[in-house]
Amino acid sequence: MKRQFYMVLLLFLFTFLFTDAQVRYDWLPQNSWAIGFGGIFDRYVSTNTTQTGAGNFGGYLSVQRNFSEHVGVRLAGNLLSFSSKVGTKTVTNSTIAGDFDILYYLVPVEPISPYLSVGIGGMSYTIKNSPTNNLNKSDTDYKLNLGFGAEWNIGKNWKINTELTYNSTPTSKFDGAYGTNSGGLLGGNTDTYMTMNFGFTYYFAMGERSHLNDEYDGIGSVDYNKIEDIVKKYATQPTEVDYNRIEDIVKRNTPKEVVSSGSAATSNWVLLGVNFRFDSAKLEPESMPILYNAAEILLAHPEIKAEIQGYTDNVGSEKANQRLSLERANTVKNFLVAKGVVASRLTTVGMGESNPIMSNKTVEGRSLNRRIEFKVLNK
Questions:
Q1: Which class is domain 2-206?
Q2: How far is it, in rounded angstroms, from Cα 290 to Cα 277?
Q3: Considering the entire predicted model, what is its pTM?
């Protein structure tokens, strides 16, 4: 008993430690297909036998279909092995089970996504070495399942799966001995057992992007008419929104003199306000005035050559972030070239998640870290 306890404790401890290197993936599909596989530790619960310390292991394979971010179904095949004492005899039970479960994900966007499962299954089992001779045979039956599990993100397609399930049979002979200590989900004197799963789930087909995590996507398009109405409504006296003044404020807070005449000075020019949506190289509408101003400065200083550096937050793998940051830098370059800046004056580089200017622990910080910087050189 003590040995089994320590093995289960080690299993879940490993799971928690593994998530220290875990990455949060805010991207989530609306629907998906997945396959799963892993190991099982099984143990009788309501039986009148004595547990043994060995032989209570198995494995599983599953196919899963998620219809939405919260709801899915799963078909699973389980190979189980039980060992227990009935008197002086060690009784073994070899079971092949098939389950159909409905899954409900409580918090699907989080890096650790807990879920509930409920279902029904069928099983074929063989009992050996029972002191009751007529139980030493193969038999079939059905069962009910009730479980609680969690998926732990380790990649966009891969997840670690841990699940604890209570399985209730309609008979008291499943353990190789008639009688039981308590009833199961089906009521009466029936045998039950627990399974503790540890495995991996691979999502091989995913639908369109979910909108459940839009709160992580930063600021959307700006409704200037609504802003103007609010200003007029709460102004103490009649007023008009002076957009020219707003533009002047933006320009005053954007570096104008990025060079020192006749020198070869180098500086980093951070384009505050040029941000991107999560996991995208598409510019936000509020980025346009900043980039227009940057184009004006570059056109006014044709001697400048600039390296456009793209950055991301720390969500995702380093390789994916480096690629995405380069795409963002190229988006800005294409914009500036379209405004008349000679392409040969601009180079691009992806900096990935390096050198954050804000903490990645907050939504606002991650939004600001998805930015563009210029490394400006005098010609």
A1: mainly beta
A2: 16
A3: 0.54
